[in-house]
Amino acid sequence: MTGGIGKQRLTAFYTHHFIFSNPPDTALSLVSRTVGIDRVIDEFVFSLTHTTHIPWLLPGIPPTNKELAIPFTSIVAMRGDRLCHEHISWDQATVLKQLGLLPEYVEFPFEIEGRGRRRGQVRGSVAGCGRGGEQEVGG
């Protein structure tokens, strides 16, 4: 789903599909902000209880009443005093995992090193919010 081009289409998108379709307990927690000459980049956690249909985030999925905490990135670019574009990204697998719609183990159809020619299940690497610090970095 895309927002639109031009003031009228963007206003309609933000009003009818994006901001005002979110559950009442929706909250944003800023993790970091980078400000440049012509853009602002935010990392934030988008938290909510899935009590309403959210077509831009979960099209076709009815409310589950589950709490979600989703890492997001937003890049807003300006030209002069006007919004040029806004790009918003998130990990949809994290959303589906928190809703219980993505299994922990999935079938893996290729050879797995150390298992000979056996194929099997592998654990998904969906980590969710705040898990990046637990990753070991080699040097």
From TrEMBL:
Name of the protein in its database record: SnoaL-like domain-containing protein
Biological processes, Gene Ontology terms: polyketide metabolic process
Species of provenance: Neocucurbitaria cava
InterPro entries to which the protein is assigned, alphabetical: Cyclase_SnoaL-like, NTF2-like_dom_sf
